[in-house]
Write a structure and sequence with these properties.
732 residues, 3 domains, 5-stranded parallel beta sheet, two-stranded antiparallel sheet, 28 helices, 7 strands, 5% strand
Length: 732
């Protein structure tokens, strides 16, 4: 399952955003990000307007906007890695303060100097300072959050702020400042020759000064380090420790960064995937204008395609958290890049504007999902000591590849002469944009496959099962394996669960033994006795609360780390017991169990098939069931096993504990043979032959397809079995 609380993932987008914005340090950083983003967009517009005032040269005036953009973009090509080194080596808060003060001083000096050359030089240096600021900010964000699973929502809010609200605010502020003179009828000589243009740049500089003051006085938490250590089971598990960077020189840190990337498959796949995605994005940017004209829709088609891409991107950013509930981030990233490439191929082959609009929206949606997933992986699965450098490399690749591909695409387009063809009665122009977009789509799809194979942490589990969960809107399965032992007596299930866990520990996987919290957990007894809970319904609710706690505290973390969890009487046995003994409705209990466990179900359930007559004769020695109730519990468990044959094996539980333990281990090995790697080999017990379960007893058997379909297919259909059990329990 996804890291963190399932309840968190069930929240709406608005509630998740509110929960993150409720964290004061992050909320203040978000406000600072707003100021700096508005200043960035305002600088682009304000400096463009100012440079046109400085000269009457027509060529230089036409070059104004391109020159401002290039001088802001060029530092990212040169200095982004340096920003990452500073973020990992020094106090990130101090780095951000120094960068903001530098931007303030540089922009403030532009109107004072009054030279177009200094304008471009200062803009370049301010862009370099921004490359120091961004990696530190991105690397610090996870340390401001309460839980690692909030990184995704924090990134959503950051992207919305930078490319949404800040764009509108910056453009609106520029329009207000430049239009105030005309609107109020003020004389052009009132502010001097460059008065309004200079005022825009001065205000721009003051925004950076305000950012520096807020960071210095209101967000000391930016200096925090390693608040949420990356678990050993995540991306860095196969890498060497990065060590203490405080004692490492810059050259050594550079070598360390590339060594980390080379050894860490997750990061390597992430960067490979984004290189292909950025190249395809550059192809789209460079070919967008001539491609829109080739569709025959006139100038309006370019605007429509532009809107379609960004609407799709916004939708992709919005749905990523929901998709991540059903598909792991490492898989979601590769799948998103592949789908973006395939959608771009459709754009290249599209015969009509309507088809192009839908495909362009799909490209934007998949690319947006991939980008957000990538920055989420960096924020949540990269060690804090390396996060700044990886963020910087990520940003540097973004600028280098998009800059290079955007500049190269027009040349490639010019190599193909336009040809007119008629498709479905519509005249289309086939020019160089089609092969360029087709090549970009093929490149993105190919690189997405490579990234997926590098990053996938669940190679033993088929991707089709996860994709089915996405289409069916079901929670994705965890990395580990959950085996439950069900039966009528907790004494037998507890003893055999411990024996099975010991037997499986001889394999490669970690094995965790979990006990039934509903029957013999001390916390439950304390809750029931302390609150004087006497009714069966109240005790069932208390048991559900304890079960939810042990699932979240013990079982889910173990499953997420890839361990095998063996648990006695997970859901079905308590459900059958409460239904038979307390007379509670089985379907209501099933719903309560689903809610308490977030619909977590075993990959394999082993039913201990005991002789009801023996239980009656013993008089229910364990206090669980006696007389007719024992028969009723056994009947309900048998019905549950029959209703869900893909997950159940039934084992004869009559005989000595050693014989029963051998039968259980053999049945588990047969059911999961070849499907789940890393389990122990079949035990050899001295004193008697260790054959199949049928050799021990004619009643020992595996029902249905548990031994043939295996746990992999069971992971995609576990909820179906739960629904069937609920129906069967109600009918019984």
């Amino acid at each position: 399952m996804a890291a963190g609380s399932p309840a968190h993932h069930e929240m709406s987008t608005t509630r998740r955003a509110r929960s993150v914005l409720g964290i004061r340090p992050f909320r203040r950083l978000w406000a600072v990000t707003y100021l700096c983003s508005v200043a960035d967009w305002l600088a682009m517009l304000g400096l463009t307007g100012l440079v046109t005032k400085y000269t009457d040269d027509y060529l230089l005036q036409n070059f104004a906007f391109v020159g401002v953009v290039l001088t802001q973009l060029l530092p990212g090509l040169l200095f982004a890695p340096l920003g990452g080194l500073l973020a990992d080596r020094f106090d990130r808060r101090k780095v951000m303060i120094c960068a903001d003060l530098a931007r303030f001083a540089l922009l403030f000096s532009i109107p004072i100097v009054g030279s177009p050359i200094w304008l471009f030089v200062a803009n370049f240096m301010a862009g370099s300072a921004a490359m120091m600021w961004i990696p530190s900010k991105d690397a610090a964000v996870p340390n401001l959050l309460r839980r690692p699973d909030q990184v995704e929502t924090a990134n959503q809010l950051g992207l919305f702020m930078t490319y949404g609200l800040a764009v509108v605010s910056g453009a609106g502020l520029y329009s207000v400042l430049t239009g105030v003179q005309t609107t109020l009828g003020i004389s052009p000589d009132a502010f001097g020759e460059f008065g309004v243009a200079n005022a825009v740049v001065f205000i721009n500089a003051l925004l950076y000064l305000a950012s520096a003051l807020l960071i210095a006085t209101r967000i000391p938490e930016l200096s925090l380090r390693n608040v949420h250590p990356v678990p050993a089971s995540t991306a860095a598990q196969d890498t060497a420790s990065s060590g203490d960077d405080a004692d490492v020189g810059f050259i050594a840190m550079v070598r360390q960064s590339f060594s980390y990337i080379r050894r860490t498959k997750l990061v390597r796949g992430l960067l490979i995937g984004m290189m292909g995605a950025f190249a395809a994005g550059g192809a789209v940017i460079g070919a967008a204008k001539p491609y829109s004209l080739s569709l025959g829709g006139g100038e309006a088609s370019f605007g429509l395609l532009f809107v379609a891409v960004f609407v799709g991107a916004a939708a992709g950013l919005a749905v990523v958290p929901k998709l991540a509930r059903r598909l792991p981030h490492d898989r979601l990233f590769g799948v998103g890049i592949v789908l973006a490439g395939l959608a771009l191929i459709v754009v290249a082959l599209s015969p009509h504007l309507a088809v192009s609009l839908v495909a362009a929206a799909a490209v934007g949606g998949c690319a947006g999902a991939g980008f957000l997933t990538g920055v989420t992986i960096i924020g949540s699965q990269i060690d804090d000591s390396m996060r700044g450098r990886i963020n910087a490399i990520y940003q540097s690749l973004l600028k280098i590849i998009i800059f290079g591909s955007t500049a190269t695409v027009p040349v490639l387009i010019g190599l193909v002469q336009p040809h007119k063809i008629t498709v479905w009665g519509n005249e289309l122009i086939i020019d160089g944009t089609r092969p360029v977009l087709l090549g970009g789509g093929l490149l993105a799809a190919l690189v997405g496959v490579v990234a997926y194979r590098q990053m996938d942490s669940r190679r033993t589990e088929p991707i089709l099962a996860d994709l089915r969960n996405v289409m069916r809107r079901r929670p994705r399965r965890v990395n580990g394996l959950l085996i439950a032992l069900e039966g009528t007596t907790e004494t037998d299930t507890g003893r055999q669960a411990a024996r099975l866990a010991d037997a499986l520990r001889t394999g490669e996987r970690d094995v965790v033994l979990a006990t039934d919290p509903a029957l013999d957990d001390e916390r439950l007894r304390g809750i029931v006795s302390g609150a004087s809970l006497s009714s069966a319904r109240a005790q069932a609710l208390a048991a559900a609360a304890v079960r939810a706690d042990i699932v979240e505290r013990d079982i889910r973390p173990a499953l997420d780390s890839g361990a095998v969890v063996v648990m006695e009487r997970f859901v079905d046995s308590p459900l059958a017991h409460l239904s038979a003994v307390a007379g509670l409705d089985a379907s209501e209990l099933e719903g309560l169990a689903d809610w308490a466990t977030a619909r977590l179900r075993p990959d394999l359930a082993v039913l201990l098939d005991t002789d009801p007559g023996a239980g009656t004769a013993e008089g229910g020695a364990d206090g669980t069931s006696a007389g007719p109730q024992h028969w009723r519990v056994q009947q309900l468990l048998t019905e549950m096993a029959s209703a869900d044959p893909q997950h159940y094996v039934v084992v004869d539980a009559d005989g000595s504990p050693d014989d029963v333990a051998d039968r259980i281990h053999t049945a588990v090995q047969c059911a999961l043979a070849g499907k789940v790697p890393g389990l122990s080999a079949r035990r050899r017990k001295s004193g008697h032959a260790n054959g199949s379960a049928s050799q021990d007893s004619p009643r020992a058997r595996t029902d249905g397809a548990a031994g043939t379909d295996g746990a992999a297919e069971a992971q995609a259909t576990d909820e179906t079995g739960a629904d069937e059990r609920a129906t069967q329990g109600t009918a019984s």
